[in-house]
Specification:
The chain is mainly α. Among the domains are: 69-176, no CATH class; 328-389, no CATH class; 402-458, no CATH class. The chain contains 23 helices and no strands. Helix 12 runs antiparallel to helix 13, helix 13 runs antiparallel to helix 14 (296-313) and helix 14 packs across helix 15 (316-325). It is globular, with a radius of gyration of 29 Å. Residues 1-61 have low confidence and may be disordered.
């Protein structure tokens, strides 16, 4: 299934600005300074050492070093944890006190050695007077805790336990059929199979197939009582996605339809945890299923769901789907394409730039429609060449998203109006290699053209 089923809104990691925890651990200072291994030890000239005792000392030093780095990793993790919890508590993402959250995380780690994850979660909910959903939310926050930025120091320590800890907490919550935990795990598993997002794939890798199977069983149980739970629409949508993936389209359609009936079209930022993976809205899932039908009536139903999502929910994916079904250059096409472009969709930005460029031409076919001419009256009567300038603005927006053909056309525009510096700036950007390491140039010929033109006007 296409990854277009999801509008991916990555919640970026929030960096913590704080002094290195290495500076706070006095007994590790020599190691950090790099001389703990190189400084010769002071030994009495009277001492004698046998080969056996030297081996013993080497082993003891090695064991002590391992213990030291393990203790330092624990210190590093705890400082990072408390700082990140404090930040997310302030932003009302973490709905418990940071001290309590840290105590829960530490106790969960200790208890792992003597009880399973579900029993651990039950124990913690009772002891700390929190809900299972609270702990699932804590797991989502814990997973996002950033590690040390210094790669050399990080490599000298054991791996951070935050991601495995978060996965274990979520697993325990899912075993107790918590909707947030179940949907987060299964959303990641589903998306890992339909997209190339490394973050999602890494998250999904923490859950073995046996755990996923139990989560899918829990999903069916939750689906039966979707009317009584806040995440009911998400549960039903996920159920439908897995059914559709398995070729059970009729059952998937039923799940999507029920989800649409139970959901709210208006966006509510509090309806989901801010760190949940984004899931396709049920009206879009249903519309995408129906639009593939050979039956014109069902295709019209699909358009109706997209229109409802676009008009009532202001949903960018609904707008994108609807624009694709409208006649290109029509009023409705312009309305929905503009909404999609405003949400950051690169291809929609390109489409709008071409539309306004055509609208600026004399005897433009775009303006043959009186309704369109009236709708664009504000633009055409405002200032001379205002449509051309608006086309240039959308080209700049698309160029900022990495679309080099728009950058070339923008350079041509600046050249046509005599703006040499504007043209040169566009050509410099055109000639630049991709900013991210390992990314292949999408338009190598345009990059070469940019270098040639730039050399000709210097």
């Amino acid at each position: 299934m296409s990854s277009s089923r999801v509008l991916v809104r990555h919640a970026s990691s929030i960096p913590i600005a704080s002094p290195s925890v290495f500076c706070h651990a006095r007994h590790f200072t020599p190691w950090v300074q790099g001389d703990i291994l190189s400084r010769p030890s002071k030994r009495s000239s009277r001492q004698t050492y046998s080969p056996g005792s030297r081996l013993h000392r080497t082993y003891a030093a090695s064991t002590g070093s391992r213990l030291d780095t393990q203790r330092l990793r624990i210190d590093v993790d705890e400082k990072s944890r408390i700082g990140f919890y404090a930040l997310n508590q302030k932003q009302k993402i973490l709905l418990m006190d940071r001290v309590k959250a840290n105590s829960i995380a530490k106790e969960f780690l200790v208890n792992q050695k003597k009880m399973d994850h579900a029993k651990n979660i039950k124990h913690l909910t009772t002891k700390y007077n929190v809900s299972v959903e609270d702990l699932a939310g804590l797991a989502l926050v814990t997973y996002k805790i950033p590690d040390l930025k210094n790669e050399e120091k990080k490599a000298a320590l054991p791996p951070s336990r935050h991601k495995p800890l978060a996965a274990a907490i979520l697993q325990g919550c899912a075993q107790l059929e918590d909707p947030l935990a179940v949907t987060q795990i299964l959303t990641a598993v589903y998306l890992a199979g339909t997209s190339n997002d490394a973050t999602i794939r890494e998250f999904a890798s923490h859950f073995p197939q046996a755990v996923v199977a139990k989560c899918q069983d829990a999903l069916l149980t939750l689906g039966a009582k979707a009317a009584k739970i806040e995440l009911g629409p998400e549960v039903l949508t996920l159920k439908g996605l897995f059914l559709e993936r398995d070729g059970k389209t009729d059952e998937a359609e039923n799940a999507y339809t029920e989800a649409v009936q139970r959901c709210h079209f208006k966006f509510n930022p509090r309806s989901n945890h801010p760190m949940q993976f984004p899931l396709i809205k049920p009206w879009n899932a249903l519309g995408q299923l129906l639009k593939t039908s050979p039956d014109p009536g069902r295709r019209e139903q699909a358009k109706g769901y997209f229109k409802k999502g676009a008009d009532e929910g202001d949903d960018p994916l609904s707008c994108l789907e609807l624009a694709a079904l409208e006649k290109r250059g029509s009023l409705d096409w312009l309305k929905y394409t503009s909404k999609v472009a405003a949400s950051g969709h690169r291809d929609a930005m390109v489409d709008l730039s071409e539309f306004y460029k055509k609208a600026s031409e004399s005897e433009s076919p775009v303006l043959a429609d009186s309704a369109m001419r009236k709708a664009l009256g504000w633009l055409l009567k405002w200032k001379g060449n205002s449509a051309v300038r608006l086309a240039a603005e959308w080209r700049r927006a698309a160029a900022n998203m990495g679309h080099k053909p728009s950058l070339l056309k923008l350079a041509d525009y600046y050249k046509s109006v005599g703006d040499l510096e504007g043209e040169k700036q566009c050509l410099r950007e055109l000639a630049e290699p991709p900013s991210k390491a390992g990314v292949v140039e999408e338009w190598p010929q345009l990059a070469q053209l940019g270098r040639q033109r730039l050399a000709g006007i210097r």
